[in-house]
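Example S7 (structure tokens).
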């Protein structure tokens, strides 16, 4: 029984069998990203509510019937997903949103949402017996695949812009990757990695061209629906860089709908920094063309000039009845502090960009008090300390003398 029917080009609609193509649509080239189409009729017979309720697997393999991997044995033991969905009372009061939920995806093996994709990427590499995997990334996709490759013992080359935060580069090095700090932007690192992968026949982990990676990202939607007891949120708000994360999540919601497990799909709202907002601009102009403006946002994980999965992201947002919105870098920085100090969840700048969007949308009056709003914190604040430090006051210096402390406390 084959669960995957075909791979379908998002641009021209051409269809291929799984083993006919490796990455993108040969007719459309790099823009012809392929979408994995399953036999939902077949899958719906296995993947029922009962199946889920009785499933004790708490790792990403929980969703194996609807992942593009034949057997659970290809997955690494690293714990991916099953991250908490919090009801944070303080935040609900502060934002006047009675049904706000925070999905804490900082709690993945390498501390970001990207681990959902990497888990599937590595499993696919093993299934296809690839012995070298490569990635280009603003940082998290790289550190993520690097950790999984370490677990699997697969050789890997990583291309990141030389400006990538130190913590992410350090993760790469401790995981044992061969790291290239590219003297250029993420967009240029992507190009170099792409060319190198072609020339040397390496397996490319990029979510933007490898059809299987977003399949891991969709599991966030499955978890949210299970955690809400199959009640569908009104809105799901997520940061957008390349656009793989939001389109992956959207696919998950659509699939549970297709399987008859839920009766509607949430509105997907994508959030970008106004200093890196090609997807918002395209959405507002109602076009699939992305014009290039050099990205300058401090939120490095979404500092993307050419969104590699922009069309899918635009489709996810539009088809769900949602929209795109921008926040400022100042709003992102402030959101690091507001989220952390009210919930104990410490996100990196891109990690809290969805939350910054929620705050803005509430202020603009676009959410009703009772709306069910979910946002995903996509990366840990420990990955970029410098930006977080800009959001908070300095610590107090104090001598070892208790009397000095007493004096100091009078002024605090
Ligand atoms: C990659 C990333 C995003 C955005 O995902 P895209 O697929 O590029 O849109 C958001 N937050 C964090 C922390 C990320 O690493
Ligand atoms: Zn095509």
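Recovered sequence:
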């Amino acid at each position: 029984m084959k669960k995957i029917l075909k791979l379908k080009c998002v641009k021209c609609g051409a269809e291929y069998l799984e083993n006919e193509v490796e990455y993108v649509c040969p007719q459309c080239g790099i823009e012809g990203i392929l979408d994995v189409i399953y036999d939902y009729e077949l899958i719906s017979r296995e993947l029922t509510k009962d199946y889920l309720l009785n499933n004790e697997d708490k790792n990403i393999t929980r969703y194996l019937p609807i992942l593009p991997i034949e057997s659970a044995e290809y997955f690494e033991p690293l714990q991916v997903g099953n991250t908490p969905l919090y009801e944070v009372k303080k935040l609900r009061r502060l934002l006047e949103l009675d049904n706000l939920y925070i999905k804490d995806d900082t709690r993945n093996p390498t501390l970001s949402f990207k681990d959902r994709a990497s888990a599937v990427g590595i499993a696919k590499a093993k299934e296809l017996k690839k012995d070298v995997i490569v990635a280009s990334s603003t940082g998290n996709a790289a550190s993520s695949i690097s950790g999984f490759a370490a677990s699997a013992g697969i050789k890997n080359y990583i291309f990141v812009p030389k400006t990538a935060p130190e913590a992410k580069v350090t993760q790469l090095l401790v995981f044992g990757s061969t790291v290239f700090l590219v003297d250029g932007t993420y967009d240029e690192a992507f190009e170099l990695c792409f060319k190198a992968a072609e020339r040397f026949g390496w397996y490319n982990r990029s979510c933007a061209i490898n059809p299987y990676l977003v399949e891991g990202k969709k599991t966030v939607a499955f978890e949210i629906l299970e955690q809400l007891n199959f009640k569908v949120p009104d809105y799901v708000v997520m940061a957008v860089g390349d656009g793989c994360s939001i389109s992956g999540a959207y696919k998950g919601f659509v699939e549970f709908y297709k399987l008859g497990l839920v009766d509607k799909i949430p509105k997907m709202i994508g959030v970008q920094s106004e200093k890196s907002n090609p997807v918002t601009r395209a959405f507002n102009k109602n076009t699939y063309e992305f014009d290039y403006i050099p990205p300058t946002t401090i939120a490095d994980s979404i500092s993307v000039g050419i969104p590699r999965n922009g069309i899918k992201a635009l489709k996810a947002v539009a088809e769900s009845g949602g929209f795109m919105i921008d926040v400022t870098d100042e709003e992102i920085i402030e959101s690091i502090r507001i989220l952390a100090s009210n919930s104990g969840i410490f996100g990196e700048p891109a990690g809290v960009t969805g939350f910054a969007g929620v705050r803005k949308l509430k202020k603009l009056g676009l959410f009703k008090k009772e709306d069910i709003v979910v946002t995903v914190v996509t990366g840990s604040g420990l990955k970029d300390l410098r930006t977080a430090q800009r959001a908070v006051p300095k610590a107090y210096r104090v001598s070892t003398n208790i009397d000095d402390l007493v004096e100091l406390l009078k002024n605090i």
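Notes on this example. The domain at 85-111+213-389 is CATH 3.40.50.1100 (Rossmann fold).
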